[in-house]
């Protein structure tokens, strides 16, 4: 009934172990999830991250989802992590989310990452700034 319609989902992510952040979002996913099935057919995705600990939000005790708090939106293609990066992806995910080690193996978990093509920073009600991917 919703084929072809965009929708959102919450997935655990990590951009590296605590002391080695890369800025590249890694995900631990299962093909049993409709989101993953869709991404394998059409890899274009966006990811929005709220400012959880910025000056405005923290100082004024404002909810991170409040429009006065910054949001970073990453857009790009979701791809399966190549074999030479799997060990890093595993360290990245398991160090930040240890519970995933206990997830049922029968779900055929694997790693995906986002190849970022565009970055937008929304810093106030509707103000959007494009940021170069290299930055």
UniProtKB/TrEMBL annotation:
Domain CREG-like beta-barrel: 2-135
Pfam families according to UniProt: CREG_beta-barrel
InterPro entries per record: CREG_beta-barrel (IPR055343), Split_barrel_FMN-bd (IPR012349)
Subcellular location: Secreted
Keywords carried by this UniProt record: Glycoprotein, Secreted, Signal
Cytoplasm is among the record's keywords: no
Superkingdom assignment: Eukaryota
Cellular component, GO annotation: cytoplasm; endomembrane system; extracellular space
Family of this protein: Belongs to the CREG family.
Entry protein name: CREG2 protein
Organism (species): Calyptomena viridis (Lesser green broadbill)
Annotated gene: Creg2
